[in-house]
Design goal:
Belongs to the inositol monophosphatase superfamily. InterPro entries: DPNP, Inositol_monoP_metal-BS, Inositol_monoP_superfamily, Inositol_monophosphatase-like. The protein is of the alpha+beta class. The chain has 12 helices and 14 strands. The termini are far apart. Bound molecules: adenosine-2'-5'-diphosphate (A2P) and magnesium ion (3 copies). One magnesium ion binds next to strand 4.
């Protein structure tokens, strides 16, 4: 089933290969990261040599495979132009990742294999291919080279996330989770999974570090379906970082719903992956009131994965997420994702909790 789908779509084969290469890189960067390899961006969030070099690797593969496709990527090379040491490290990391032997499921023409190293200028230019502004029409990719950089730095969950959007609809979502155990309840279960969703064709999990076309990988590939939860089995999937989502609001929603199990806190779109395979029943992310606008790369692959696993994803008003507004999702109304039956109930609970809040404000 799974190889049939990826063979049918060259975009998915390219995207899986790109995310796998980047995950090998980020895993090795984590094991060798030194103190001065992390910068703080203007919005006070961290960015590491891993984020920049992973974006260089994925953008290279996309640019070679689909030269006319624009890319909306989280990072850009501005901070690297004035920092020679950091730039040299990123060029070294990206080139090492690109020059590794061409594997089953990859092509040399995608800029891979021995001899495919690029100059420093070419690496900066390819990182900057991610500056596209997005929009409502045509084909574009959106990339978060390390989603959950804070989780990455803690050695916890993070994800390499890539998505193909056509006329503002997500068509393909690939999420590489190097640190995610196969079974959340058993932390010693094998880590490293990749999640793939193709619109209309389903959502799948397969081992990250095996070629997707290898018999071993094919036999371990599973089609994902969100199970029907009983109330006592439900729990919320939410951010670790208090600055990213209003966790006190989640607590009230859980109370209204009668959910007694504690929330699972996890960084990145690994939460959407966990939801799609039935680990926890509800993804809830409400704005903290700072005016932060959610980015399309933080939700495009995760939302398709959940929908293809039979779930529903909306904002807190029940409206679909709009991937055609540019680099962000526009005004932030939060995100609710859950299985079909549970979603309607959560939406009601969120509306009730919001009404309570605005009543308390008026008093
Ligand atoms: N102030 C903020 N509010 C909400 N999300 C944020 C904020 N700052 C960064 N993010 C992004 O939120 C996502 C992590 O959310 P979570 O808390 O669910 O792990 C990341 O994509 C992170 O970016 P980044 O990709 O740089 O890590
Ligand atoms: Mg970031
Ligand atoms: Mg992100
Ligand atoms: Mg990121």
């Amino acid at each position: 089933m799974f190889p049939h789908i990826i063979n049918a779509s060259s975009s998915s084969l390219v995207a899986i290969a790109a995310v796998r290469r980047a995950c090998v890189l980020t895993t090795s960067v984590f094991n060798n990261l030194v103190k001065n390899e992390t910068l703080t961006k203007d919005d006070a969030s961290p960015v590491t040599v891993g984020d920049f070099s992973a974006q260089a690797v994925i953008n290279t593969i996309l640019s070679r495979a689909f030269p006319s496709d624009p890319i909306v990527g989280e990072e850009d090379a501005a901070d690297l132009r004035g920092n020679a040491a950091l730039r040299a490290r990123i060029v070294e990391l990206a080139n090492k990742a690109l020059a590794g032997d061409v594997q089953d499921g990859e092509k040399k023409e995608w800029g891979l294999g021995p001899g495919s190293e690029q100059s420093a200028d070419e690496i900066l230019e390819v990182i900057d291919r991610g500056r596209y502004e997005g929009g409502r029409s045509g084909r574009m990719w959106t990339l978060d080279p390390i989603d959950g950089t804070k989780g990455f730095l803690r050695g916890e969950q993070y994800a390499v996330c890539l998505s193909l959007i056509v006329d503002a609809k997500v068509h393909l979502g690939v999420i590489g989770c190097p640190n995610l155990p196969s079974d959340l309840s058993d932390p010693s279960s094998p880590r490293g999974n990749i999640f793939v969703a193709v619109r209309g064709q389903g959502a799948f999990q397969l081992p990250l570090f095996l070629s997707p076309l290898s018999p071993a990988s094919t036999s371990l590939a599973t089609k994902l379906t969100i199970p029907r939860f009983k109330k006592e089995e439900l729990n919320l999937l939410e951010s670790v970082e208090k600055a990213h989502a209003k966790l006190s609001f989640n607590e009230r929603v859980a109370q209204i719903l009668g959910v007694s199990r504690p929330p699972t806190r996890m960084d990145s779109q690994a939460k959407y992956s966990a939801l799609a395979r039935g680990d926890g029943g509800v993804y809830l992310r409400m704005p903290t009131g700072t005016g932060y606008r959610e980015k399309i790369w933080d939700h495009a692959p995760g939302s398709l994965l959940v929908e293809e696993a039979g779930g529903v994803v909306t904002d807190s008003r029940g409206e679909p997420l709009d991937f055609g507004l540019g680099r962000t999702l526009g005004e932030n109304f939060g995100v609710i994702a859950a299985g079909k039956e549970v979603h309607a109930e959560v939406l009601d609970a969120v509306k009730r909790a919001l009404a309570e809040e605005s009543k308390a404000c008026r008093l």
